[in-house]
Amino acid sequence: MEALESTPDTRARMSRQKSKDTRIEVALRRALHAAGLRYRVHRRPIKAVRREADIVFGPARVAVFVDGCFWHGCPEHATWPRRNADFWRGKIEGNRARDRDTDARLAEAGWLAVRVWEHEAVAQAAARVAAVVRERRPGAPGPAAQPPWHSG
Asked: Is 123 exposed, middle or buried (0-12, 13-18, 19+ CB in 10 A)?
């Protein structure tokens, strides 16, 4: 593998990037826990697929992925490095393709992948995730369910 051209500052900055328990991830988990939801962290929703979700709601079959704007090519905040541009473009596009593949594999197995961008407001992201989880819980009424007294 060819060594990439890099500066000491860049190497130091990239080595500090966390892949688990990022600030947004921890804040989202706290908000979901405060909302009364319980979950598993850093688990494979489907054992046969070697992809780990950040937050997993097993009975509801919801897998939450907290995506970094740089690493996953956020449409609002993506930046494309000038140094080693071809490498980084390939890396980020590869991450996007893997995300699409993961979402499709989970859907085929009856799971729903929920993607949260690191720039999203925690309260809004938590509300979105909580609504999906509650809707998909076993025994939960469907979105179009009517009360028994409704004559509609």
From this structure: exposed
Place of tokens 């780990």: 52
Q: Measure Cα distances from 5 to 15, 80, 81, 87 in Å.
A: 15, 16, 12, 11
Query: For position 130, what pLDDT does the model report?
Result: 98
The sheet that has 53-57: what strands, in order across it?
A: 40-43, 53-57, 62-67, 112-117
Q: Per residue in 63-84, pLDDT tens?
A: 999 999 988 999 898 788 888 8
Rounded distance, CA 142 to CA 55, Å? 23
CA distances from 13 to 8, 17, 63, 85 (A): 9, 7, 29, 17
User: pTM here?
Assistant: 0.80
- Render pLDDT for 93-105 as a digit per residue (tens, 0 to 9): 999 999 999 999 9
Would you say 40 and 56 are in contact if contact means Cβ atoms under 8 Å apart?
Answer: yes
